[in-house]
TrEMBL record:
Signal peptide: none annotated. InterPro entries: Diguanylate_Cyclase, GGDEF_dom, Nucleotide_cyclase, Rev_trsase/Diguanyl_cyclase, TPR-like_helical_dom_sf. This is diguanylate cyclase. It comes from Roseateles terrae. It is an enzyme of class 2 (transferase).
Amino acid sequence: MAEQLLSDPWVAQGEAPAQREARARVQLALADTWNLRGDHEAALRLTDEARDGFRALGHLAGESDADWIAANIVHDLGDARLRNQFMRSAAAHAQTAGDIERRQTAEMALACFAAFEDGTAAGVAWAHTARRYENAATPALRALAQFFLFITEWGRGACDAALAHALLSIQASEECGQMRRALLDNANVASLLMELGDLEAAEARLAQRLEAARRCAWPHPLGCTLTVFSEVLVRQGRVEEARQKAREAVAVLARVPRTTHFLNAQLALADAELECGNIDAAERGFQLVNDHGRHVELVEDRAYALFGLAGVALARQDLPRARELLDQALRQPHLDPDQALRTLICLSRVAQAQVDAGLPEVSPEEPVRLLRQALKISDEQLEGAQRHELLLELADRLESQQRDKDVITALRGALAALATDKRRATERQGMAMEARHRSETMLAEAQHHREMARKEAARARELQATNRELSRAVSALEAAQRELMERHRQLQQANERIQELSLTDPLTGLRNRRYLTQVIDGAVAQALRAHACGPLTDPDAGSPGRDLLFFLLDVDHFKQINDRYGHAVGDAVLVEIAARLREATRGEDLLVRWGGEEFLIVVRHARRDERAVVAERLLGCLRDTPIRLPSGDVLHCTASLGVASFPGLLAPLSPVSLHGRWERVLERADAALYDAKRLGRNRWAE
């Protein structure tokens, strides 16, 4: 229609003030259309022509409108400086013209731009103004105020309030016909729901508006909707569908390759490609965002791109490159706290891998330091987000350093944080559902009153929309219940881990006495049942035995090792002895550190005549190969071994009376150990 009007001679060639004003107005309408279609250069050219026309007429309100549209065009191109310059000019022209509504709208747009750059500072400077306009009668002004409050509330972590403001911004945008803004805000709402963990609601909202975005065929709202859709699908584990959506977003936004939306789509596609295992394609996408992000307002996405490139390096086992990229990501200005948290966690894992690889330039304390830094961000800026996962990972790091007291402290903290996370998750889900329900109810009532003046059928459609929102609220509640079940499962795993630590010797990693007392009765009962079946028909046929063989091993002259080399070397020797005993025994046998330099081996499903073979194997694993100490010295280590079998001499007793008699067998093994030492050590006795 605008093109037809501009082809009309009366509009295109007339020099009367009314004709020139009409021509400038149509040029602005056409510029807005070209901007929606992604032809920014043509849109800016028409805006310049319209501005010149209004300026020649002294039409300040018209100049304000031209600057307004120009500001939105260059905003899409990522030029923050020029965008702010145009919008300040729009506000100044409106102020000079005495047009209060235009001035207020331009000022509120400047507030939104400020919130993009620094939400905290913008909240301090503009929050009072936004609150004054959030219920303005003018829908365009109301939409901007609600959008500003959405950005700042989300930035400070008040997700329930942010959701309510975003929904009200959509309603106001639709009311004044700003469908592009409504579609973009809908994508923002989906992003917020995704961050709240309500993936089903986010997917439903995107799917509901995706067809409308496709009908409009405007690159920015359609590409943004597809990009967020891809991110939601990745979090759901539907990576192939996510890649398809991201590819469509990139194809749509290829018409506007210099925009932030295009680079965001490339970032989503790179994430999906990485999840699908397409390492080269992912690297190309992340590199494109990193290179082009230098020239547009994309500070946050550059950090994500560097993080993605680090993921590519990790997939290729290139730890130094991954470390370099993660360090670069952390140095990005205005780094989002959530991304900083993710980067520190990944950096800690890379540092741990470097420590495990024996790289001397990486301190063993580095992974722990990075996790503690992540915990600080979690507590101070993200309300304890991921605290229990961080504490569990910290426990892993501390355990690898054998810092058992710190491990237990971290695990206890993880249990407390998990309980807090469960409570917060429930509260946030409840707040999100309440805000969503409250906001949608307000929208439904407003629409109801408008449609009552026109036709009754619209009221029925609005009731159906309300029912759909209630269904989504039920879905959100079910999602919260599933989340609670998952948190409970994690709590059980943490408890099981604490139980496992209580049954394990912290130095050698072998089982301890407490573990033996829990399992020995079962082994005794199995041996008794085997004896109750009668004698073996062919003891030499290779069938499994029925006895339990107890081997109590004591390292010879271990005190001299401690006295000569120190306790640290003594501990290292014990760890090496434990490793050799582990290799010399079977998986079904019980290998226990009995205390100090004593080890107990209970061989299951054995025959008494096998005790000599097993004893020599156990002694030989220490005697035959010297132990090389860290200092370079070679240590020849031997041991003495006491042997006893069960049931053995106790066999004539009744099966019932044999239960609990394994302690007597252990006493015999201990006495035999004493005999082996008395006879000269480095031998076994029974």
